[in-house]
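Hello,

Our lab assistant flagged a job as stuck in the queue for most of the afternoon. It eventually completed. Since we weren't sure the result was trustworthy after the delay, we are filing this so someone can double-check. Below is the sequence as submitted and the structure that was eventually returned. Let us know if re-running is recommended.
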Amino acid sequence: MKRPIRILALALLLLAGGSPRPLLAADQAVLRIFNWEEYLDPELAAEFGRRHGVRIEETYFESDTERDRRLAGSGASGFDLVVVDQAQLPVYRDRGWIAPIDAARVPGLRHYDPRWRRAADGSATHAVPFAWGTTGIAYRADLLRTAPTSWLDLFRPAAGLCGKVMVFDDPRELTGAALKAIGLSANSAEPGAYAQVERLLKAQRPCVARYGTPGVDEDSEMLGDEVWAAMNYSSNANQLRAINPNIRFVLPKEGGLFWVDYLAVLSASKQKPLAFAFLEFLSDPAVAVRVAEFAQAATPNLAARALLPVSVGKDQSIYPSAAVLDTAETVAPAAPATAAIRNQIVARIVRKK
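-- returned structure --
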């Protein structure tokens, strides 16, 4: 997710006239997806393309805020499908950016856990759950003598960790985690609470190596000596762990943040039948297992979860216990005044780094 927006085109083949022939790009329909990097298995995209004679293009965003800004600037056009978090999904629906799900075209909806189908206002009618997980602290077990257990281990790092910390630059998530660190709700609207958050983040700034989301490939900041502990998504941390087993992930004792990502069809899409076909393809339990394995995230598909290895189901970094989940919060969209405070704090501290 650390790389600039770029487009990955998957050129595919179409069977025509009973014999295979390569298609020119102009011959193929194109399904455009606005997504996190390293979230969709290219092999699955290619498989869907072969079945439907479509070329899939993915454009990547680095944060929820960046995604929101780009869609607002384009009138939510230029893409067919978008990955949207549960906090912003109601906003997208209310703005008319996303189309209702045609349930007749996606019979695989029956496989999803009702909890995730209804986790957000509008999610049961306007989106299909893709993955869920938590936000906590990823760290290098081989470099840290003591494992972090609190958000304050990141926001008030010990001398040995100072300069080796990375935190998000997204206003909602960064201030939400900071609020949890000082023992408050991630959705506090009290101006006094945000004054405390700003003091905490200002004091932390000299210890921050970088603001943003750690990369999930071999060039990630967490795989060298640059970053030893970082605010991170559970799925990203698990992808990094597959590269370096010294990566660990923990939900702080104050409680982590909780997220569900959905796939929604954009109202401006010219490829709605293909978009719904893609949602149905991903709803197949066998395909959903592959989605979860590639993204290293928890699957919202009940039938798929039953197919996962027992060891995966018991992995607390992917499927935390109910007791742990009870301490996590979703950072909801705030009233304009509170959203402005969040943005101003980031502008004064993060943007000046």
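-- support follow-up --
The delay was a queue issue, not a problem with the job. The result is valid. Residues 1-24 have pLDDT under 50 and may be disordered. DSSP finds 15 helices and twelve strands in the chain.
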